[in-house]
What we know:
The structure is a single chain. By secondary structure, the chain is an alpha/beta fold. It has two domains: 4-113 and 301-314, Nucleotidyltransferase, domain 5, CATH 3.30.420.40; 123-297, ATPase, nucleotide binding domain (Nucleotidyltransferase, domain 5, 2-Layer Sandwich), CATH 3.30.420.40. Helices cover 39% and strands 20% of the residues. It is built from ten helices and twelve strands. The protein has helices at residues 38-55, 90-98, 107-118, 178-181, 183-196, 202-207, 217-225, 229-253, 269-282, 303-314, and strands spanning 4-9, 13-19, 25-32, 61-66, 68-70, 77-80, 102-106, 127-132, 136-142, 145-146, 257-261, 294-296. Strands 3-2-1-4-7 form a five-stranded mixed β-sheet, with helices on both faces. The chain has a five-stranded mixed β-sheet with strand order 10-9-8-11-12, with helices on both faces. The chain is globular and about 60 Å long.
Amino acid sequence: MALSIGVDVGGTKIAAGVVDDDGAVLKTIRRDSPATSQQAIIETIISVASSLKADFPEAETVGIGAAGFVSSDRSTIAHGTNLDWTGLDLGEAISQGVGLPVVVENDANAFGWAEVRFGAARGKANALIVAIGTGLGGAIVVDGRLVRGAAGFAAEIGHINVVPDGRPCGCGQRGCLERYSAGTALGVNGWELARFRPDYAARIIELSGGDSNSISGKAVTAAAREGDPAALECYAQLTHWLAIGLADLCAVLDPEVIVIAGGLAEAGDILLEPTREAFTRFLTAGRARPAIPIVLAEGGQAAGLVGAADLARQA
């Protein structure tokens, strides 16, 4: 049995674990992420990985799922997002500290790979995995291989353009899918309703502490679970654009399955049912092609470190 150490590095936490070749997690460690200090991030990753190596000396590799753009060398952070590590050769730094070969992957690629190997897309050679949280990310697998692209930046699906000159995005562009289909967008939808139709959006405002300027995606989701029509309208807007983005991607990729992960996936059928209905309408040659199911991820909180560990083992 081959063991690998997987590390999932986010803006608020670092989770690490020892993973076997069946995707089972044998032990985990969690630490707060010292996001403001590059050296502290490196030291924390080395600490958790070294601790796991001490308990499982047979571990052969370390895989790191990292937020940001990871270069094609699968070691260097070309551009950081939530963490201070742009330009850092993270793989080399961790390898020197732990004494094992290290492979670095984009965090969305890592959890997406876990879904393909061990989760909702297992057994599928062609899959699209979409993570919907505060932002929108994803992973693409074609013919059993993770698509990284020439520079290593492939699968930034949140930044395909769906509304020309639309809402401004943190990437510097306007009208990105992320701005209409992520948790932040759900809060914006609720804020717009509350601004122009406050009586209609009364329940959303109430769940936001009575402050229409503090409406979040969580408040909208809570109201939607109660069947609130304004909240369900917010979801209808979000799933409309999500379905357009998914249909556009399927016209290019032709996957066997679409897996939805991330915090917003916890809304379940409130998210899935309208997305599936709209997706069927927007899908090119929908009647001619085999059905493309849209399903929820199965990997849970550990998917990122499991996928990172498995990718490192395979490398």
